[in-house]
Amino acid sequence: MNNWKITDVASYAPQRVVTNDDLSQLMDTSDEWIKERTGISQRHISSGENTSDLATKVGEKLLAQSGWSANDVDLIIVATMSPDSYTPSTAAIVQGRLGADHAVAFDLSAACSGFVYALTVAGSMLQSPQFNKAMVIGSEVLSKIVDWKDRSTAVLFGDGAGGVLLTATDDQYYLGQDLTTFGKMNDKIVAGQTTVSSDFPHEITGLTPFKMDGRSVYKFSTHEVTESIKRAVEDAQIDLDQVDHFVLHQANARIITQVAKRLNQPLEKFPVNIDQYGNTSAASEPILLADCIEKGVIKRGDTLALAGFGGGLTVGTIIIKY
Ligand code: ACO
To answer: Is 292 a catalytic residue?
Structure first.
């Protein structure tokens, strides 16, 4: 088989909702500032559930929805920048909990581009006869790495997970892609940095919290996401007008508006749910996809451009038929 398609989509968010007003009790911020600058009204925040817990919930939903047994799954990739641990991978924990004993499982680290990067990796692997069915999940508990004293980043993020099941096919569902990495800008978004002292034996040090140069990332995103979508559409040999929905990483409603303008595409083609979830990094596109499918906004046969951008810095777009 030389192509693949999405058969099922599911998402899960922790029950606890934290509003902008709740945050203004913790730090010097306001509902007005957050809404106006980002479009965010609330976010879900985990109470005790780790990244693998959220991802496992999504995996269970996907299996229940599809009727696949855990043993049918050949591959599990979890895209995350907030894994439970260095090792085991979050994907290995999910594989064990689901009882997907035949599945190869590993994590993929590309921050907010993680879901698109993981889809392209899974898609490539599905071209090998060894793999027929894959599970790709974006899962994040960013609340454990955010500095809750830094209002410039704390108000932006939320916790959640979303995922898809993919199956190999000969029909043309996957159409094209663009993945680009800008490693020279690696210092613009950093989290979980470790340090190594010069003496030996080394002390085990803690991880650094999330830090972002918001203005640089804003400029980067509006320009590079636009260019990545253009390159992916060209790779797919279609026109921008043939894309029914642009499912963009939900980092900031203003970035999405800017990208729509630059692509000269109607804003109605850019679904948004950042108001409900905040920025959930690798989970934001599958959560949005699940919402749109549930509401009937995205239907079978629609052409989608999924685009992610973030830490690395990275950007990625994939063009598929749903
Ligand atoms: N509440 C109130 N005031 C605030 C807050 C807050 N939460 N945060 C910052 N401010 C203040 C600043 O101190 C500044 O005050 P000053 O003018 O007196 O210095 C003022 O608001 C403006 O701050 P800016 O940083 O210029 O605000 P901006 O309009 O750029 O918005 C934001 C900041 C929302 C972070 C924006 O830059 C952005 O969205 N950047 C892109 C983020 C992104 O796309 N990330 C994606 C990747 S994330 C990942 O990969 C995990």
So the answer is: no
